[in-house]
Amino acid sequence: MTLRSKTMVLDFTGDCDGAAAIRLVAELPDAGGAEDGGTVVLEQDAATVTQPGGEIRLTAREPLRWNGEPVDVEFVLPESPDSTVLAVRGLVVRLEPVAD
Q1: What local confidence, expressed as pLDDT, does residue 16 receive?
Q2: Hey, what long-range contacts does 28-37 have (CB within 8 A, 24 or more apart)?
Q3: Residue 19 predicted with pLDDT over 90
């Protein structure tokens, strides 16, 4: 994943309600800088990045979809759709049954 200009490898966990709704969450690494640490939440059409300096809501260029293959998705600020803020590359979604 690349957030602004920082590339990092994250492990997402989350929930899926069929093929239509997905919500994945990952912790961002904290190297001690003003834009380090926090969380990123990926959803079907949006992402939310929460860091010590605040929160930004981003819109997906295309809705997040998966078919068992790695997917790439880019997120932009709605008011600035030409600049990618968050890019996720090679996202693999594995569905596991929920334990009762």
Answers
A1: 74
A2: 28/3, 35/4, 35/6
A3: no
